[in-house]
Inverse folding.
């Protein structure tokens, strides 16, 4: 079956989640990938949304982090302070699934502002949300982001949530129990942090994509793993499940805006 | 003890120019009706607190009610930017907007500290983030036992917290259910509390460990069916996703925004009138 | 992920000599069955944590399981003294018992810190009290914003927390309802969690905001109907007040205590056998 | 109607609670008094027990602080950390109703130990429970305690929860927002803290009791207010309500132990 770049990105991200993994899910692409994992190979993946829903099993993708489908299908719904304190800060999350506007080669993320100054930005973005603490407390972080030079930058305009802090020593600072951003899944390939240098390195390209194309779409001098692999093609089962999910979602929300 | 009043009276008597006001509801039960009433009464110079200043604050900021915003995520969930919020920060329109920016975990902890009678909250936060560089309210504190350095931020204690809930009983006890967000903490942290509700019932019939605000911690209860529109009320009506998407276009330009606000908020008498004006009445009719 | 096992296996595999163990349940859902099993397996040198070390710890202390106790109130609620607890502290029988003593508010805050991944808790506590003179784990901390001095105490993170709950579903999700006490925090603060339950059901049917422990934070679930006796299980059976009063006489003297424990705990195979031995079966039969 | 010393003590304590007062209730005599107030003159008194029950309206007296009657009749039941943090420490309690084993003339209370040393006491008592924070955070504290020289002592063996800290300056320390122990209700009379000196002073005697008798039963040189009053006699309504409450309680708990 044919597939779009967004589809293989979502499917590659879904594969990152194993059955039983506890995943703290951001809205948008992370939510699509996490739910795709749940309805395909990982039926017992535990999805936590920052709205307080634990074990959500939505039949359609939520438009917001707090849709009623999440509450109605969750194992339990707790308060927002509880979700951040007992569940995230309490180190119960295996994988934090995040998006961002900008990323650098150490996995630092910007969702705050672009251009100008902090107090007079050219483009004001939504801000931190749960990201700084998800990035620090989840056992590891996976980032889902479309490849472009605007997004993959040499230097962030603002560090909203931290990756490896530009320290190439394999250690994260005290107070940061998790392993940090281990994997970035894009519409072109998969970039993984090198344990020796903490720098993000291209380890997989999607079928038909070359390393050169990925380097071209990256704002820093992207390193390529010597044993570069090719992402397995999306299976018919994966694609059908993803398209059905988007179709159900579009029908429920009265538009095709999330289907892309 | 909770008084029952119209929303107009509640806002007139409790929300004053210059006050620090939290409108809470984490992507659910957002108190839009109360936000509109504040706009109608042309409140000015408010410090607005909210974890997720979505459409409700886009409207209040764009109408010039706020001079300061304390928040952690400002967007139109699942849709994109908040154009009025951005215009205020990027261009100072209609007024310059001072911002104090935190993370969700921090804002939640700050409300908890406020509800707990503590002056500050402790959390593991912001490691490696630039946010503390721009916010003097993000400081550090050392554990007296391990020496570990953590983040401390001051308690939030709004002058008024405004929330929307499913129902109240005739004594004024309030039941919130579904995604309960930060409402209990925001209410208990505030000096005064306004609650708009979908209905007032003889008996709450709340499960024993449900999220209930006893009548004696609530200042005013206002019956406003549909009062969360375009947000939703679990068990009553769904989110008006079409409206949230349409807001992106309505709010993109100053003129279209002002025209919409004039027609649907300033020119309407109350929230029921607003719902009629946007023909959303059928979307928020109770399931009951 | 929760494993289903017998209580005997759960205690044998998870509660080791020398471990720090919390048995929680605040005057409700007290895990007596698990306490008895620890006594039957003759565990020694435990550090026992519990806000209200009532009859369950009187029995464990009197049987020599504990060398240390962290607590905030040790009595037989509504009846009077805990004679075995007193004998251990006053006379070192059967063993000296080291105590670390806090207030309820502090113990609750310490469990919360433990559940929250924080090294310490902050509270307004102990002003004017002698307790901090005898407890090096009660320290002070200054607010980085106001300078106000408050109390800091270290997080509690037991090796094992043991609780009793109304029911689990077949996946291992646990519902606790009624007086939920400190159970969620004690469970989330611990490295391992044992839950005894009244029944295992196909569907929990928990209200949306109920107190639920997901299966994946529970180590072992053990079906032990009546497992809270002589405490009660909201919705299942009432407290056996007559037993609580009778305990005052049973436990007053060492000999009568040992005779009772030998006959009803050591000489019984399990909790069902214990309930038969004290003829309490009818008192704890489920309402269902 | 005739009445016992315990009955007039309980009734006098109940009268202390006004309709609508939020009362944090200790078990035993405080609970009897608070519920008597609720079923007589103060139907809207709000009773909070440290077990997390808010607005409990039990038909029989609880034997423990966490009886099922409390949960079943409460407006809501919250967790123990929440009751102490949001409700007590959050300064929502008007009156804390406490008992104790020992009290001194500044309203300091001992519920920890008597005789010997802390580590080897002659009599080990239950300990602090909620008392230190109730004493500090409630807007005022009322203490219910039978009069005896063993209980009303010159010097406590241990200060578990504090009253006025032996400081006779009318001010309580920082971090103690409440007014402290304003009233001690005993089986002989009512002792009230003097705003000028913080010392507890006898202001009322129960009918038939003399100031001399109260002084005789007090372990310090008890001061007597110049305008000593006499507690109004228990009314038939109060006594009937109290006795009915105890009778219902005895029947429910299978004994008369709490009726006294």
């Amino acid at each position: 079956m044919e597939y779009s770049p967004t589809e293989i990105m979502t499917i590659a991200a879904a594969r990152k989640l194993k059955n039983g993994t506890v995943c703290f899910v951001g809205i948008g692409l992370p939510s699509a990938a996490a739910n795709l994992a749940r309805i395909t190979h990982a039926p017992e993946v535990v999805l936590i949304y920052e709205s307080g829903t634990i074990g959500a099993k939505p039949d359609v993708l939520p438009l917001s982090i707090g849709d009623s489908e999440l509450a109605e299908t969750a194992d339990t719904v707790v308060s927002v302070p509880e979700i951040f304190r007992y569940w995230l800060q309490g180190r119960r999350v295996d994988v934090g699934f995040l998006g961002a506007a900008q990323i650098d080669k150490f996995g630092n993320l910007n969702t705050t502002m672009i251009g100008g100054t902090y107090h007079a930005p050219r483009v004001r973005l939504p801000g931190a949300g749960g990201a700084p603490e998800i990035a620090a407390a989840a056992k590891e972080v996976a980032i889902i982001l479309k490849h472009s030079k605007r997004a993959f930058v040499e230097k962030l305009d603002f560090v909203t949530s931290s990756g490896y802090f530009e320290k190439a020593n394999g250690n994260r600072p005290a107070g940061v129990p998790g392993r940090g951003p281990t994997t970035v899944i894009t519409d072109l390939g998969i970039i993984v942090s090198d344990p020796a240098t903490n720098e993000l390195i291209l380890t997989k390209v999607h079928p038909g994509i070359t390393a050169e194309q990925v380097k071209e779409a990256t704002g820093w001098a992207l390193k390529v793993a010597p044993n570069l692999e090719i992402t397995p093609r999306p299976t018919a089962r994966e694609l059908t499940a993803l398209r059905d999910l988007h179709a159900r979602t579009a029908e429920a929300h009265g538009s095709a805006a999330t289907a892309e | 003890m909770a008084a029952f009043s119209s929303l107009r009276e509640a806002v007139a008597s409790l929300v004053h120019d210059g006050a620090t006001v939290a409108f809470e509801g984490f992507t659910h039960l957002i108190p839009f009706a109360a936000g509109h009433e504040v706009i109608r009464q042309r409140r000015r110079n408010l410090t607005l607190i909210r974890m997720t200043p979505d459409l409700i604050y886009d409207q209040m900021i764009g109408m010039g009610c706020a001079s300061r915003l304390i928040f952690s995520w400002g967007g139109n969930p699942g849709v994109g930017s908040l154009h009025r919020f951005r215009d205020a920060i990027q261009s100072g329109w209609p007024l310059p907007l001072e911002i104090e920016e935190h993370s969700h975990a921090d804002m939640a902890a700050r409300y908890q500290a406020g509800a707990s009678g503590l002056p500050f909250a402790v959390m593991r936060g912001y490691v490696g983030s630039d946010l503390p560089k721009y916010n003097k309210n993000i400081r550090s504190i050392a554990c007296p036992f391990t020496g570990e350095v953590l983040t401390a931020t001051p308690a939030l204690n709004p002058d008024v917290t405004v929330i929307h809930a499913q129902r109240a009983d005739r004594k004024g006890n309030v039941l919130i259910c579904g995604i309960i967000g930060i409402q209990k903490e925001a209410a208990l942290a505030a000096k005064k509390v306004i609650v708009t509700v979908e209905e007032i019932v003889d008996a709450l019939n709340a499960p024993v460990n449900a999220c209930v605000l006893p009548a004696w911690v609530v200042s005013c209860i206002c019956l406003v069916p549909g009062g969360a529109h375009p947000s939703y009320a679990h068990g009553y009506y769904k989110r008006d996703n079409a409206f949230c998407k349409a807001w992106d276009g309505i709010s993109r330009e100053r003129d279209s925004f002002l025209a919409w606000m004039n027609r649907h908020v300033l020119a309407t008498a109350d929230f029921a009138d607003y719902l009629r004006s946007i023909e959303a009445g059928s979307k928020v009719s109770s399931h009951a």
